[in-house]
Amino acid sequence: MIDRIGDGPVFSVEFFPPKDEQGEAELWRAVRRLEPLDPAFVSVTYGAGGSSRDRTIRTTGRIATDTTLVAMAHLTAVSHSTAELRHVIGSYAAAGISNVLAVRGDPPGDPLGEWTPHPEGLTYADDLVRLVKRSGSFCVGVAAFPYGHPRSADLDVDLQRLLAKIRAGADFAISQLFWEPEGFLRLRDRLAAAGCDVPLLPGIMPLLSAKTLQRGPELSGAPLPDGLAERMAPYADDPRSFRAAGMDLTTELCQKLLGEGVRGLHFYTLNRSLATVELVRRLGFVGS
Ligand SMILES: Cc1cc2nc3c(=O)[nH]c(=O)nc-3n(C[C@H](O)[C@H](O)[C@H](O)COP(=O)(O)OP(=O)(O)OC[C@H]3O[C@@H](n4cnc5c(N)ncnc54)[C@H](O)[C@@H]3O)c2cc1C
Fold first, then answer.
1. Residue 52 belongs to a domain with what CATH number?
2. Whose CA is nearest to atom 29 of ligand 1?
3. Ligand 1 pocket mutation pick from 5, 79, 147, 149 by most atoms within 8 angstroms of CB
4. Cβ distance 76 to 56 under 8 Å?
5. Ligand 1 atom closest to 78 (CA)
6. Cis peptide before 9 (omega within 30 of 0)
7. N or C: which end of the chain has fewer CB within 10 A?
8. Span from the CA of 210 to the centroid of ligand 1 (angstroms)
9. What is the largest CA-CA distance in the chain?
10. Got the DSSP string for 145-156?
């Protein structure tokens, strides 16, 4: 998988494990729609609860075995002992998954609440990277934050944390979502200046609704760039024209990033693929 990113530009997509039969059907429609477009990989997030975690293992395994897609499973350290983490990593290997996104996770219920590690578990993502790497022949990705992780004291500290994950063995990083390219490109430059050349993929959330615009900064820590709210304001009460203007804005963001030589675009699909399909066509990844 890392070879394809190196040969980029490529695109990849992120799903979450479906909660019910309807969600399962929606996810599989999205997977089948994206499959012929040849994404470099397809990832499935890892939730906080036991049943959602089983669904991540099952869904990622099914993508690995029942489709032509390369599957990547996310894994977090939340509420897991190291022995349990080893067991999940073993389940991934048994399901034919050799790509893992190793993230620390947030306290269940309140992402900004106090983080308490499992008494026999891990505290930070770099430990998780080491554990996955020691457990087999895995390609491992990590999370990156163009505007700093909300718990990091400042951007310098945040960069050191990212470098620690890469030194622990991470093969690539995927960024948190953002709305203008500058913060991402600054992070990429700072990584390069630190002598680090692992691929950094921008995480792209297609701007499809006013809710995404409202909640984006809160969820990501990435500020809204000057003029964005004003640009979208005329469409606030008209979901169709909001989506059209948001898709144009997302296309422009992706074009700027590709123009800056990024090796891949990672789309947060929220299990709906139409916007991603439209974007990868607009961007010339596939014929229309
Ligand atoms: C692409 C992407 C995918 C994600 N997928 C998921 C998912 O599937 N499931 C999920 O629950 N969450 C997911 N997340 C969210 C992620 O779990 C949270 O953002 C979490 O708060 C941070 O994870 P991390 O891996 O960056 O943690 P870390 O790198 O461990 O960092 C967490 C905090 O600890 C600090 N820190 C790190 N090391 C040290 C140290 N040695 N000493 C002191 N402080 C330190 C960092 O500065 C940071 O503030 C994802 C995020 C991204 C960007």
1. 3.20.20.220
2. 125
3. 149
4. no
5. 11
6. yes
7. C
8. 27
9. 53
10. -TT--TTSSSHH
Question: Is 14 an active-site residue?
Answer: yes
Closest residue by Cα to atom 3, ligand 1, is 143
Q: In this structure, what token pair is assigned to residue 260?
A: 């800056």
159-184 pLDDT, tens per residue? 999 999 999 999 999 999 999 999 99
Q: State which amino acid sits at residue 132.
A: V
Q: Which of 14, 180, 182, 230 is catalytic?
A: 14
- Domain of residue 113, residue span: 2-282
83 lies in some domain? yes
Residue 287: inside a domain, yes or no?
no
Number of compact structural domains in the chain? 1
Q: Do 65 and 37 contact (CB within 8 A), yes or no?
A: no
Q: What is the pLDDT of residues 153-162, one digit of tens each?
A: 999 999 999 9
| Any domain includes 226 | yes
- Helix, strand, coil % (nearest 5) of the chain? 50, 15, 40
Query: pTM, whole model, 2 decimals?
Result: 0.97
Which of 5, 53, 124 maximizes ligand 1 atoms within 8 Å of its Cβ, making it the mutation to test the pocket?
124
Whether the per-residue pLDDT at 50 is higher than 80: the answer is no
Q: Per the domain annotation, does 208 fall within a domain?
A: yes
* Separation of CA 156 and ligand 1 centre (Å): 16
Closest atom of ligand 1 to 43 CA is 8
Six token digits for residue 46: 């890892």
Mean pLDDT of 250-254: 98
pLDDT band at 112 (very low <50, low <70, confident <90, very high): confident
Pocket lined around ligand 1, Cβ cut-off 6 Å:
45-46, 74, 76, 101, 103-106, 124-125, 143, 149, 151-152, 157-158, 161, 165, 174, 176, 203
Mean pLDDT confidence for 278-288: 87
Q: Which residue has the tokens 């066509």?
A: 281
Residue nearest to atom 35 of ligand 1 (CA): 152
